[in-house]
Amino acid sequence: MELKDKLVSSFMAFENNVDVESPVHDIRTEAIKNFETKGFPTKKEEAWKYTSLNSLRKIDFSIFPKMENTLEYNDVKKYFLHEIETYKIVFVDGIYSSYLSETTHDGVDICLMSSALTKEMYKPVIDVYFNKVASKDESLTTLNTAFSREGAYIYIPKNKMPKKPIEILHFATGNEASLMLQPRNLIIVEENAEVQIIERHQSLTSNNVLTNAVTEIFAADNAIVDIYKVQNDNASASLIDNTYIDQKNKSVVKVHTFSFGGKLTRNNLNFYQNGEYIDSIMKGVTILGEKQHVDHHTLVHHIEPNCESHQDYKGIYGESSTGVFNGKIIVDKIAQKTNAFQKNNNILISDKATINTKPQLEIFADDVKCSHGCTIGQLDEDALFYMQSRGIPVKEARALLMYAFANNVLQSVRIPELKVRINTLIASKLGVNLGFDL
Amino acid sequence: MLKINNLHAKVEDKEILKGINLEIKAGEVHAIMGPNGSGKSTLASVIAGKENFEITEGSVELEGEDLEEISPEERAHKGVFLSFQYPVEIPGVSVTNFMKTAINESRKAKGLKEMPAKDMLKLIRDKSELLEIDRKFLSRSLNEGFSGGEKKRNEIFQMAMLEPKLAILDETDSGLDIDALRIVASGVNKLKSKDNAVLLITHYQRLLDYIVPDFVHVLHNGKIVKSGGKELALELEEKGYDWLKNEEVV
User: Positive or negative, the Cα torsion across A44, A50, A54, A59?
Assistant: First the structure.
């Protein structure tokens, strides 16, 4: 059976385990209808021209994880930012692991979507926020909405900041031959509040995993939100990561995406600026090899005047890897004094690697500053010779140049231990050990 | 130390060096002068091992070892240093980190451990004082936004850090004002010893007032057409290069 049919026919079984009377379920029902009509996107659609889901659609994924699977902390410690204290929301094969997690209700809510969707006390919040910024017609988003039940729920009230960063981790153990996961996260950061979140999806075996995640983020006036997406999964794991961000006046939301692995990764990152003096920042470092594929699709919708957006994506593509960058910026007619900047610089270090990069600007206002720049190049031979002539071997010289290339993006990482970790990851991806940190 | 025998070299099918013979012994300073396009910078690049320069005949030997099959980084480990005419800008890598990497890679190649951070800092401090380099300068990205003079001074700072056996200074005087020239020359003079050698490549005699050569060679059309002592440089300054060209025709 094709994956679409399997998903649609599984919806009834899913309904046996959720409250079909709740308003949330009306949303799910609408969503499955949309997915049933649209199905998986194909390469005929402009937004999916360079990313094919064909091979994934033929895999017989298990849609519901069977049972709770335990993991020893020591076996997975390396995937956590264990150098510092963090809150942790951890899922193993899609099921919450209380053993590995550290949640809190002390002044802030850092807990589970399943609680938020079912407990009466969260109802007022869910009514206001759930599925309010996520797309109601993009098929993969609606697929996630239809099966939304579990994930992270984070609520930071006015003027609050959690004591430590929050890690959201999803492990796949390989209990199933092929497993599909659909986590749903809701993150609400109220006025003048602040939060730092690290997300990671990690498969622990070579069994197939497909994750179709949706995260909704609401940043109220003056809120500050930092999201770090660490994508370094193994060669049989694919991720479709859909993030929708609603920003109000003077809020600052930064999303860093570090894409270092996985079979197929699609990042749909959507910002909606529903206020003035907003800053939206997207940074990305992509380092790929083998036959890995990463597709970054960003959207910034400038709806109100006096806002800014900054995008800076760097890519290093080796072996037969492929990359896509598609950055769409919409500036509405009333969104005067918008400053929108977009940069995508790529280095191809193999003849077989490819990158498709495309800026897409739709500007309806006349008093705006918008710039975009895409480059695709090789490493500078003169710079390589210069470094070699100082005794730096060509391999290290290449690494140093690539390091330097990615450097700008790391500067804005505000958790020092994470910065060191990413730095180390970059070094290991480039196959060298440099004697210093950038 | 360096022995060049009947060296012919080409770049993209164009023969530039057409039979160069040169021997440099430890403790000596040689200057190669010549008009533009005579092959001076090509000679420097060939000795340092730049990839697209192909040796078609003859050889370059360092302490008896043929360098042809040896990579630029290994040549550096063996003590060859080239001060670039046009140093490359490398954004994102600070001068300090660049030097740390260069020194530790050379040590690694010699089977030595990395230099302790304390020693490295002291070395950087001492050598930057020698070249009168502001400490702030060392945390800037390598050569990025440096003035012409700053770039050249930075090259000699790197030479001081790496303490090469054979230093080739390619047009190090170009782009330097007189004060910077004095600082750079004094740095080179302080680094000179009986165990190392310097090859100066220059168009003008000016640098040779400050770094006095033992031998001067005139390169023209890919060949050394005249060699002599330091007085040859003065003669060239007076008469210009045309005089040599004419002599060659005769």
Answer: negative
Tell me the DSSP string of A7-47: HHHHHHHHHTTS-TTSHHHHHHHHHHHHHHHH-S--TTSGG
Best A345, A347, A375, A388 residue to mutate vs chain B (most B CBs within 10 Å):
A388
Q: Where are the beta strands (DSSP E) in A127-263?
A: 152-156, 166-172, 178-181, 184-189, 194-203, 208-219, 224-231, 237-247, 252-259
Residues in chain A: 438
pLDDT tens, per residue, chain A with 438 residues: 789 999 999 999 999 988 999 999 999 999 999 999 999 999 999 999 999 999 999 999 999 877 767 899 999 999 999 999 999 999 999 999 999 999 999 999 999 999 999 999 999 999 999 999 999 999 999 999 999 999 999 999 999 999 999 999 999 998 888 999 999 999 999 999 999 999 999 999 999 999 999 999 999 999 999 999 999 999 999 999 999 999 999 999 999 999 999 999 999 999 999 999 999 999 999 999 999 999 999 999 999 999 999 999 999 999 999 999 999 999 999 999 999 999 999 999 899 999 999 999 999 999 999 999 999 988 888 999 999 999 999 988 988 888 888 877 888 999 999 998 998 888 888 776 655 544
Q: Provide CB contacts within 8 A for A184, sequence distance 6+.
A: A113, A144, A145, A148, A149, A150, A151, A213, A214, A215
Structure tokens at A243: 């993030």
Per CB-CB distance under 8 Å, the chain A contacts of B105 are 391-393, 396
| Domains of chain B by residue range | 2-249
Looking at residue B89, the DSSP 8-state letter turns out to be: P
Question: Nearest residue of B to residue A391 by CA position?
Answer: B73
State ipTM. Answer: 0.94
Give the span between the Cα atoms of A185 and A113, in whole angstroms: 7
Helices and strands (H, E) in chain A, number of each type: 10, 20
At B229 the three-state DSSP class reads: coil
d(CA A213, CA A201): 10
Q: Which residues are registered as beta bridge partners of B200?
A: B31, B169
Which residues in chain B touch residue A400, judged by CB atoms under 8 angstroms apart?
90, 93, 98, 101
B203 DSSP 8-state letter: S
Render the burial of B1-13: b for 16+ CB within 10 Å, e for the rest. bbbbeebbbbeee
On chain B, the residues whose CB falls within 8 A of the CB of A402 are: none
Mutation to test the B interface, candidates A345, A381, A390, A392, most B Cβ within 10 Å: A390
- β B65-66/A279-288 pair status: unpaired
Contact in structure between A236 and A265 (CB atoms under 8 Å): no
Residue with tokens 């770039």: B151
DSSP H or E segment with residue A173: none
Tokens 């609520």, located at residue = A155
The candidate with the shortest Cα–Cα distance to B199, out of B6, B24, B18, is B24
Whether this prediction's pTM lies above 0.90 is answered by: no
Yes or no: domain B2-249 corresponds to CATH 3.40.630.30: no
Please provide the DSSP assignment of B102-163 as one string: HHHHHHHHTTPPPPPHHHHHHHHHHHHHHTT--GGGGGSEETTT--HHHHHHHHHHHHHHH-
